[in-house]
Amino acid sequence: MNDVPARPKRRTRGAARLLLGGACALAITVSSMALTTFARADLSGPPGTTLKAAAERSGRYFGAAMGSDRLTDSGFLTIASREFDMMTAVNEMKPDATEPNAGQFDFRRGDAIYNWANERGMRFRGHTLAWHGQQPRFWGSLSGSALRAAMISHINGVMAHYKGKFAYWDVVNEAYAENGSRRSSNLQATGNDWIEVAFRTARAADPSVKLCYNDYNIENWTYAKTQGVYNLIKDFKARGVPVDCVGLQTHFTGGSSLPGNFQQTLSSFAALGVDVALTEADVTNASTSQYQGLTQACMNVPRCVGITTWGIRDSDSWRGSENPLLFDRNSNPKAAYTAVLNALNAASTTVPGTPPTTAPPTTAPPTTAPPTTAPPTTAPPTTAPPTTAPPTTAPPGACSGTYRMVNSWNGGFQGEVTVANNGSATLSGWTVRLTLAGGQTIANVWSGINTGTSGTVSVRNADYNGSLGANASTTFGFLVNGSSTTAPSGLSCTSP
Ligand code: XIL
């Protein structure tokens, strides 16, 4: 997060009056047992003396973003663990970092940040899965259905890795232009439904995490871009597209400062049935009045679930020359820190204990079943009825495979197979065979290793999901190019 590359340029571009904005999203309480949950809000308790304690009084969180280079910075880590209870990776979970080459994922730096935060009881917000910026180089040579498939495969690959661990994921980042229409990008060129497909894919990949749309310059209610994003969320809610939260990045500069109607923006989004959050806050010269005002606006809106600053000290900021954060370069809290702390302590609304929202309309059942560690992704093997295709079961004692279609589009579809151990002995390794319909070709497989791409194909376990305890299950996914969505036939599973 230290450099200020390309970004500011882009920002100033069309946003003259307004500012930077930026968003990321978030949401609220989490059902997964793997996630740290907070004590219920209690406004009658004593004021908090740290940002997180003050935020938790009203059921909110106070977050920061960090790069993996900060893991050896004891000054940073001291403040981070004392003051913050939500963490975000600045760059380490962006598409170019997590999938540098097609199908080759790298979670080392992201995991290091996540593990550090998780060990300290912090929650985590993933940032980000689909974005016009910081894309893997190989996306640059793709377009159309191939890029669409790469995006879907990326979302699946990354979300499978962090399944059950995060409170929020920024599924789509910065997809709108300043004039309120879609930003033109290679992802947008794959078809206007790309955002919707990203969210549906994400819901199916991890039903336990809240799915957020994140953007900047959407703080001013009367600004065209704010209205564009508002209409997107409104449409998604009306049509049952799974979205749980909107992140407002809240980058305030000299030119675009805190708008007087910020609270109206927050409450208007919240009224659509999503959580809202301030996801990347920083303010030129750490204006005390603006920090006080943005915090108070959030505290006044029950579904504003928390605030994240984009870094901790000015020396951590991507806008470092503007000294926009709550701590100076010597780790001392600034006047703005005290203003934020007081505003958090003065909160008069609490976050409603909302359960995770709507189940995916098109996909699978487990609204409740929290993935603890291993993935009970789809249906509990013994009870729930398969939504789509009938399971083909192998002889008792071995494994079985159940197919479902997760998503489809013109020219292809995404499939998933749940591999279950129906016996009482642990299986070490599995292989699923299935036969694709004529004209169908597999473009990508994740959480499994395939042999063949058309006709009869076999998929064996990946390194990390071959061991299946009694009654345990796992899933693998794949993308198919072809004119039909006919389900694969002859599904069978064997275990050595
Ligand atoms: C920024 C990082 O802080 C920089 O280190 C990087 O060079 C560019 O990206 N909105 C977002 C964030 O959603 O991902 C951006 O982070 C800041 C603006």
TrEMBL record:
Top-level class of the enzyme under EC nomenclature: hydrolase
CBM2 domain boundaries: 392-496
Residue ranges the record marks as coiled coil: none
A biological process from GO: xylan catabolic process
Signal keyword on record: yes
EC number: 3.2.1.8
Reaction catalysis annotation: Endohydrolysis of (1->4)-beta-D-xylosidic linkages in xylans
Keyword rRNA-binding: no
Ranges where the record places region Disordered: 348-398
Gene Ontology MF annotations: endo-1,4-beta-xylanase activity; polysaccharide binding
Pro residues biased stretches: 353-394
Keyword list, A-Z: Carbohydrate metabolism, Glycosidase, Hydrolase, Polysaccharide degradation, Signal, Xylan degradation
Occurrences of domain GH10 (ranges): 45-343
Organism superkingdom: Bacteria
Similarity comment text for this entry: Belongs to the glycosyl hydrolase 10 (cellulase F) family.
Name the record gives this protein: Beta-xylanase
Species of the source: Micromonospora lupini str. Lupac 08
Lineage: Bacteria, Bacillati, Actinomycetota, Actinomycetes, Micromonosporales
